[in-house]
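Let us walk through a complete example step by step. Step one is to write down the protein sequence. Step two is to encode the small molecule, zinc ion, as a SMILES string so that its atoms and bonds are unambiguous. Step three, shown after the inputs, is the structure prediction itself.
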Amino acid sequence: MKKRKRLWLVIALIVIIFLGIIYLITPDASKKLDNYGKIVLDRQGKILRAFLNENEQWCFVPGNAQIPPKLEKAVLCFEDRYFYQHPGFNPVSIIQAVSRNIKAGKVVSGGSTITMQVCRLANPGERTLYKKLMELLQAVKLEILYTKKEILSLYLNNAPYGGNILGVRAAALKYFAREPAQLSWAEAALLAVLPNAPAQLSPGKNQQLLIDKRNRLLHNLAKKGYIDEITCELSCREPAVDNKRNLPCEAPHFTRYAAAKQNSPEIRTTLDLQLQNMIERTIKFQGGYLHENGIRNLSALVVDNQSREILVWIGSQDFYDDEAQGQIDGVLAERSPGSTLKPFLYASAIDDGLIVPETMLADVPSYYGVFQPKNASRKYEGWVTANEALVRSLNVPAVRLLNLYGFERYYYFLKDAGLTTLFRTAEGYGLTLIIGGCEVRMPELAALYCGLANQGRFAPLSYLKDEDKAKPVQLISPGSSWQILNVISELKRPGAEYYWHQFDNQWKLAWKTGTSYGHRDAWAVGTNPQYTIAVWAGNFNNQSNPMLSGASSAGPLLFAIFNALPKDPEKYWFKMPLNELEECEICAETGFAPSKWCEKDTILVSKQAKALRFCNYHQPFQVTKDSKNTVCSKCWKGIEHETKAYLVYPPQVRKYLKLNGYPVQEIPPHIPDCPTRYKAKLQIDYPQPGAMIFLPRDIDLQQQRLTPQISGYAPETRLFWYLDNEFAGSTIGKENISLLPENGFHTLSIIDESGNSVSTTFQINVSQEK
Ligand SMILES: [Zn+2]
Ligand SMILES: [Zn+2]
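Step three: the predicted structure of the complex.
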């Protein structure tokens, strides 16, 4: 008795181990399924584009987790009525099938459950008895591993629906251009009967057979009480589908990018299909005009400023324009930005106390080693406000400002603000950084303007709907951002009068154009509280075109897009950040902080800006009552005189202002019979023109200063010194001045009280050891 009991135990144990091994070695059928092609959706969930899977099949991940009820009822009624009851196989239907097959003398019925069909889908190929057995084992394993709903989903997502269409979502889209949840009863019934014999019953052929099969199922559904008689009759009258639809292929450049970047089978993006289509039409319309002028390629991007989400992405004027390389995506191309990076330098310089928009900047020949920046007009203005220099996009004042601000700091500003295309070191770009010497990608350039519109807080743009957004970094103060946005919203720009009328628009836009060196790239970037729009025009083959310019080629397109976009009246223009601005006194003439000799003006400036540099240009002179002569202590005896301030221009500035016909206030000549008047000519003895001067460092590693030597000046006379046209100080008589020039080329100018001036250009080499 005891022995027998033990034997039973051993047998039971062996059976359990055997079953366990079988369970373990039976592959999980679900692992071989779900080979989805990618599907890209717009911000409302509309399909932008669907891609084939690795096996060139249309097969998509289900749109939502719920199985559409109509489809579930139709499929279970047709395929597997006891699906929710059986353990993976149905012994009754297997016996029925076997007897039916014997009667018929051939295989007419499989007796397969949905679970077994899932296993068969995972192991395609010839049906053998061994395979059938494996299917049965796998079915049991599936039932243990998954819920019934999950198994039904596996079936629906992988069942064949004719041709290379797999899964119910691909079938619903290809046959009815609808998502499965939107199917009618007739459509659901049709999709339920299709996988049963997809080869014989693919839509388009055997229409009547298909309709008969579908209608039999509809009547069964009515019998079961799932649908009423009227629904059944009406559904039976619906035509079957006769051909496959093309799946959408919208925003082809963008969807190609998103699918290449993302691994998820369903990519939810921020693109707005409606806006995309509208702007595509705008681009095509405008592109025709540019094409006549040999400008073949256009790209554009529209961004929602609040969310920093990309709404429109146009890689080229026409994806299918092979002749003009339409498949290239200009949005992703790395191109020279021309002048489009200038506003950020001006804003940063305001924060740094270097300028306010009213500050005068020199526009005179400037040399930085071999680099000599030139304005597009090839002219020099002499002296312009920062405001005008930016609006007119003058290169020389911008380069001079960058030199003052420091190209290295600006280089790191651009990196912090999101430019990833600066592949050289800061020195590698140097001062060319501000006039298009680097390369940018459109989304990063747009992100810069979007940052300015977001009160100087910079962050990358996003194109994925549910993506975690990067935390913005504050790089420019809200006050200075607002100020620069207003500067570049000044619409009437000299030099753009010819096409100005085209840009006339009631909606305000802050914008900047850029033209790259050699007329290869034309940019226009604009921003208002609602949108940032970036436009590029040029040729993908890098062909230069003299007709190409930011203002004439890209500008009209920018405004055409801006006009077409829907506007929110609440977001007409940026609100003045009152808490961020404070009143500040400036010299009315030079725009620097006023000295006691300056006439004053009051402006608003960012509270976070550093103290503005002082005006050294207004200097006091002793003049006769009629202001006709200056006098000194050696000659004013017996002459009535008074103190009067004069603007002492840097010599080059004075020269170009006069050349351009601007009235320049002259300092009156010194009284002729002054006994100390020295007739010799003012001259610079050191440094000599063209000299290369080595400045070593002291023991404490401080750079030694340069002390110029001059002769030929009158004793007691006041001299004004300028290094690189920036005021460097004033001296009287034999007083020395010491300067701290950096490595590179410099111009030293001296002007005396009578307006005589002398200049020298030299090169400085500072010891690099630190
Ligand atoms: Zn002043
Ligand atoms: Zn005198």
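Step four is interpretation. The chain has 21 helices and 23 strands.
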